[in-house]
């Protein structure tokens, strides 16, 4: 069977090879009728389009952007906050036709996605500060946007007011009358987080550190030293196991502040397994206002962050960063200075539902 090329289609339609090429790569250059005629001929002849790798090489672009995750790729499909964030990015990028590529920090053997995968830029999403994968992206000099990361003056960033949200949650329990309060957070690379020194604090992901600082600021301001427990991973089983450690002791807290709704759900399930009522015996507060918070019965009191807005902003800022990089490559010495780098902090708000009440008498 003869190989079908652009010239084959051009001969069939009676146009130039460049016109056929434009039908695939620059459709705005053709009338809709002519483009439809060319695409119909291509389909009839069995032509699937230009080779993506060759087209990317010719353009000097990959036609894709990456999202770097610290956790496994499975996290992107199972955590409802992550899926909401990624979905918002996809929606914002859809009109441009740019693809989304998920990159993991998991490096096995010779495979280093952040080093090897072709992308035009990347969102670094809630990664550990010491991430080797993030360093690879920086060394490639790719346009980047930081999300849920410590801000860098040279890189656009989107964060939420994690510290302010944690203050709202802690203040809510204190105002209800709770004085024995527990905190459930995540271990960092198997290490329990206390923020006792600057080196440890710098190794903690930005949202987790900010939430703990906001929590401690309020509680210690009221003379309350919380019991802090750590889940080994951000999953149901790990959350329940850590919650059991909080709730099974003789000085059981009457209220628990959780740094995600997944962790809050683990506390609720552990409480039920121990024969405790929520909120009668123990009040529970989550963070994120993910769909699970509203689905639970009773609904989980939580701190809301606008995950969709965070995803949309990430896509907008990354698109702008890629465009700035292209302009810089083409600019001469008389070009105007680059636009100011944007750093967004989105607000948080407390959503009170049925898992919090005054402590038992």
Could you list some keywords that capture this structure?
361 residues, alpha/beta, 6-stranded parallel sheet, 4-stranded parallel sheet, 15 helices, 45% helix
Q: Can you describe this structure in just a few lines?
A:
The chain is an alpha/beta fold and 361 residues long. 45% of the residues lie in helices and 15% in strands.
Shape: elongated
Class from secondary-structure proportions:
alpha/beta
Order of helices and strands: HHHHEHHEHEHEEHEHHEHEHEHEHEE
Separation, N- and C-terminal Cα atoms: 84 Å
Low-confidence stretches: none
Rg measurement, Å: 25 Å
Average per-residue pLDDT, rounded, comes to 87
Main beta sheet? 6 strands, parallel
Helix content: 40-55%
Strand order within the widest sheet? 2-1-3-4-5-11
Give an overview of the whole structure.
With 361 residues, this protein is α/β, with parallel strands linked by helices. 45% of the residues lie in helices and 15% in strands. The protein has helices spanning 6-13, 17-25, 32-45, 52-59, 73-78, 80-93, 113-116, 132-139, 162-176, 198-202, 206-221, 236-247, 261-273, 291-295, 307-330, and strands spanning 64-69, 99-104, 122-125, 144-147, 157-160, 181-186, 227-231, 255-258, 283-285, 302-305, 343-346, 348-351. The strands form 3 sheets. Strands 2-1-3-4-5-11 form a 6-stranded parallel beta sheet, with helices on both faces. The chain has a 4-stranded parallel beta sheet with strand order 7-6-8-9, sandwiched between helices. The chain has a two-stranded antiparallel ribbon with strand order 10-12. Helix 9 (162-176) packs parallel to helix 11 (206-221) and helix 12 crosses helix 13. The longest helix has 24 residues, at 307-330. It is elongated. The N and C termini lie far apart (84 Å). The mean pLDDT is 87.
């Amino acid at each position: 069977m003869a190989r079908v090329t652009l010239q084959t289609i051009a001969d069939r339609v009676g146009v130039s090879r460049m016109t056929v090429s434009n039908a695939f790569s620059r459709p705005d250059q053709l009338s809709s009728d002519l483009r439809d005629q060319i695409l119909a001929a291509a389909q009839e002849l069995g032509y699937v389009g230009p080779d993506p790798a060759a087209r990317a090489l010719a353009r000097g672009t990959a036609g894709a952007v990456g999202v770097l995750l610290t956790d496994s790729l499975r996290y992107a499909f199972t955590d409802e906050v992550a899926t909401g964030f990624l979905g918002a990015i996809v929606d914002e990028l859809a009109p441009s036709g740019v693809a989304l590529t998920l990159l993991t920090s998991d490096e096995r053997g010779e495979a280093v996605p952040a080093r090897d995968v072709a992308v035009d830029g990347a969102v670094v999403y809630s990664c550990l500060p010491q991430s080797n994968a993030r360093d690879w992206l920086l060394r490639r000099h790719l346009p980047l946007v930081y999300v849920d990361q410590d801000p860098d003056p040279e890189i656009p960033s989107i964060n939420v007011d994690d510290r302010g949200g944690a203050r709202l949650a802690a203040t809510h329990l204190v105002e209800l009358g709770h004085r024995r309060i527990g905190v459930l957070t995540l271990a960092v690379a198997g290490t329990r987080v206390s923020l006792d020194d600057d080196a440890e604090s710098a190794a903690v992901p930005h949202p987790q550190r900010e939430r703990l600082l906001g929590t401690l600021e309020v509680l210690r301001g009221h003379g309350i030293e919380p019991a802090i427990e750590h889940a080994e991973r951000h999953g149901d089983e790990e959350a329940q196991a850590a919650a059991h450690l909080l709730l099974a002791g003789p000085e059981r807290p009457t209220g628990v502040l959780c740094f995600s709704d997944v962790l809050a759900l683990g506390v609720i399930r552990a409480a039920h397994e121990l024969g405790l009522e929520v909120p009668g015996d123990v009040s529970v507060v989550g963070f994120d206002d993910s769909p699970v918070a509203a689905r639970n019965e009773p609904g989980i009191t939580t701190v809301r962050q606008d995950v969709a807005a965070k995803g949309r902003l990430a896509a907008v800022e990354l698109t702008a960063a890629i465009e700035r990089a292209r302009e810089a490559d083409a600019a001469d010495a008389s070009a105007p200075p680059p636009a100011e780098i944007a750093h967004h902090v989105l607000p948080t708000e407390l959503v009170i539902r049925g898992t919090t009440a005054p402590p038992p008498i």
